[in-house]
Amino acid sequence: MNCPNCNRPASGKFCAECGASLAGAVCGSCGAPLTPGGRFCHLCGAPHGARARSSVPTNVVAWVVGATAVAVLVVWLVGRNAGSSAPEGPSAADAAAPPGAGGPTDLSSLTPRERADRLFDRVMRATAGGDTSQAKFFVPMAIQAYGMIGALDADARYHVGLLEAESGNLTATLAQADTLERENPGHLFAMLLRGEAAERGGDARALARWHRRFLDAYEAQMQTGRQEYQAHREALNIFRDAALTSSGTAR
Question: In Å, what is the CA distance from 130 to each residue of 36, 119, 231, 240?
């Protein structure tokens, strides 16, 4: 493997070049734990050995984001109790409200994963509705929210991969696909993310390749009964229809 600090080939417990520990290393860009043997950070997509993008520690960034969300909620509560009209712009509390809700949700009542998933849903709804400005507003908040929940399951990795694609960071999208495949060989979400990156990058040949691999794996994977497949059945059906069309196979 390569040293996560200097990116030189290394083995054992410490790097012979710079002395950095090879176990328990974190990404120099976002601070997330690095996967042993991986070439990229599973959260932000930065290559191992990348330097920090900011001099502000990750825990400080996380605290600021959390404090900002609480501040937004407090402002909303004060405005409501004072009888003033709510601001027209979107807020973190607005994003936490599920579809059809009568108003903003109290963020303190949600778990970190629930807050992240609500933000993801808000981005996807805005994208589907053509509201690109609102999607761009919430994407960084959603990515940061997933970075604060700890270990990511397959469903969360798929969410982060799509959010990174919305932000234009296709390298990070592919990094999530790589980690998904490594942790769950043959997982359909890895192919969905790679197909998403290929389509957004205009790589028709790569998209066709992932369509074929998706169709080859589809039946066996659906028989596993994975819960995340049921949660994203519509996305799987859309990708499968596109794959069948591109391959000329009748459904």
Answer: 39, 17, 23, 23
